[in-house]
Amino acid sequence: MSKKRTRNVENGKKPRRSFTREFKEEAVRMLLDGHSAGSVAERLGLSGTNILYRWKRNFLGGKSGIASDLETRVRELESELRRVEREREILKKALSIFGRDR
Question: 28, 55 in Cβ contact below 8 A?
């Protein structure tokens, strides 16, 4: 049987860091807001981008706060889009009506 090596200061390796759920959610939000994974990792002091992509997959795969926030925002934007499209059609019709009088 082989021994499982653990990271600790005694054998010259850094101890494994743990992050709170809030920290992970904020990191994923930054990623979803359009920041590059590299810049988010650098700002937050993460060792690489893979951890960000793993957190993103975990949060968006399930019904987390981020996933439900995104779904709510998408529904709001779709509703607003339909309203704006209706307004545009009304304005097009008004323009054609008022344009005929000339």
Answer: yes
Rounded Cα–Cα distance for residues 24 and 34 (Å): 16
Question: What's this model's pTM, rounded to 2 decimal places?
Answer: 0.51
In Å, what is the CA distance from 31 to each residue of 24, 48, 54, 68, 72?
11, 13, 12, 16, 18
Distance between CA atoms of residues 39 and 24, nearest Å:
15
What is the per-residue pLDDT for 60? Answer: 80
Query: Comparing C-alpha atoms, which of 83, 29, 74 is closest to residue 56?
Result: 29
Which pairs from 38-42 meet CB under 8 Å and 24+ separation? none
Predicted local confidence at residue 89, as pLDDT: 95
